């Protein structure tokens, strides 16, 4: 579904990704782990078109998407929930969801919002409330719900657990599994909560200094703590 080959990218003159290759197949949950500054967020930003690819190739469902604008990628089925910035605090829950559907015809957007809200009962009761009044966990649920409005084929999540208590991390991860199973959405997830993300993913890539240094199934790392530790040194 998503194929990244020999990707190089960065900011200004600073190169961050050095020939990175990875894949996300249909229906998979793929985790992207590695130390701070390894380039994980940069991978997601390059794929969704927020920053340009310098070299290499990005293909989505067989089409070459290097150079595509973020809005074009959303229309193609690529959703991105960036690190940290979750929801617009001064807008209501409903207004936040409407932003998720900004490219859709009005009627389609309304139907999609109603449909997505069925899976998020806590949000459904609070559509008129300002998003800033939701708890951290509820805001993350809203960010997930918003990303689903365009009915993406792949959902890219950058540290959805950031700042959440362990219980909330669990419920957000359970929701991600549900989205994957019930909506058939592939997931590419960047996470610092490594143990937890290894429990929900089908495959994992670990980055260091803009390169893939490990690629495999989560069990390999769960059974080899020394290897896992080494990936973060
Ligand atoms: N907007 C930016 N401008 C310049 N350098 C950046 C920017 N964003 C990230 N970087 C640098 O790119 C490198 C990789 O960052 P990032 O992809 O955010 O890493 P990760 O998500 O793995 O922690 C880091 O050295 C970081 O300082
Ligand atoms: Mg990051």
Write up what this structure looks like:
By secondary structure, the chain is α/β, with parallel strands linked by helices. It has a domain at about 1-85 and about 155-230: P-loop containing nucleotide triphosphate hydrolases (Rossmann fold), CATH 3.40.50. The protein has helices at about 40-50, 70-75, 95-100, 105-120, 120-125, 135-150, 165-185, 195-200, 220-225, 225-230, and strands at about 1-10, 15-25, 30-35, 55-60, 65, 80, 155-160, 185-190, 205-210, 210-215. The model has no long low-confidence stretch (mean pLDDT about 95).
List keywords for this structure.
10 helices; binds adenosine-5'-diphosphate; alpha/beta; binds magnesium ion; Rossmann fold; 233 residues; 39% helix; six-stranded mixed sheet
CATH topology call of one domain: Rossmann fold
CATH class of one domain: Alpha Beta
Q: Average pLDDT, to the nearest integer? A: 95
Tally the helices: what do you get? 10
The largest pleated sheet is described as: 6 strands, mixed
Strand content: 25-35%
Strands side by side in the biggest sheet: 6-7-8-3-9-10
**What is the subunit organization of this protein?**
single chain
CATH architectural arrangement of one domain: 3-Layer(aba) Sandwich
Bound molecules: adenosine-5'-diphosphate, magnesium ion
Q: What's the number of extended β-strand segments?
A: 10
Q: What class, by secondary structure content?
A: alpha/beta
